Amino acid sequence: MRYWLFFVGKLAVATAISLGLLQALHLLWPAPQDFMRAYQPVFGHDLGFTLAMGAWFLVSWGLLYLAIWDQRYRCRVCLRRMRMPVQTGSWSRMLQLGQPQIEYICPYGHGKLHVAEIQFAGKQTPEWAAYRDMWEELTTAGPPEQEC
Ligand SMILES: [Zn+2]
Fold first, then answer.
1. 20, 61, 143, 148: least CB-packed within 10 angstroms?
2. 111 CA to middle of ligand 1, Å?
3. How far apart are CA 99 and CA 116, in angstroms?
4. Within 13 Å, how many C-alpha atoms sit on residue 144's CB side?
5. Is 50 a residue whose pLDDT tops 70?
6. Cα-to-centroid distance, 81 and ligand 1 (Å)
7. Helices and strands per DSSP (H, E), number in the chain
8. Which of 108, 64, 74 lies closest to 6 in space, CA to CA?
């Protein structure tokens, strides 16, 4: 739930930036001059304004792409960026060692993210594997030493 609320928040910020840029573009662009007592719409008739609208469109889609891309590599529990990418599998020995993929882990041990490098059947979404406590075996004390 928190993961999706964070994503919605990022989308809201991206939308606010995009609408602010659009509003600024409309406010700062000089008003069109009348031609035979008629005002032509600026978009499609003024090359500069049309190019600026094209740039605004690209920036808006870029913000949306960045929001989705950033969300993809975040921990589903604590929302921190996934770290420590490790390449697993093999390109040349795929049948023996598995398909090549990159594993990311949460620094606080909430889970792993498997991102496949080969997309056989279209775009595959990264696979999230949750752990209760990944670092438990490292942080707990080892077996008691036996005294002779
Ligand atoms: Zn985490």
1. 148
2. 7
3. 8
4. 3
5. yes
6. 8
7. 4, 4
8. 74
pLDDT attached to residue 41: 78
**Helices 47-72 & 2-28, crossing angle to 10 degrees?**
170
Distance 2 CA to ligand 1 centre (A): 12
pLDDT in tens, 72-104: 999 999 999 999 999 999 889 888 888 899 999
Kindly give the distance from the C-alpha atom of residue 110 to the centroid of ligand 1, in angstroms, as a whole number: 4
pTM: predicted TM-score of the whole model, two decimal places: 0.74
CA of 140 to the centre of ligand 1 (A): 19
Span from the CA of 118 to the centroid of ligand 1 (angstroms): 26
Identify the weakest region by mean pLDDT among 51-60, 64-73, 127-136. Answer: 127-136
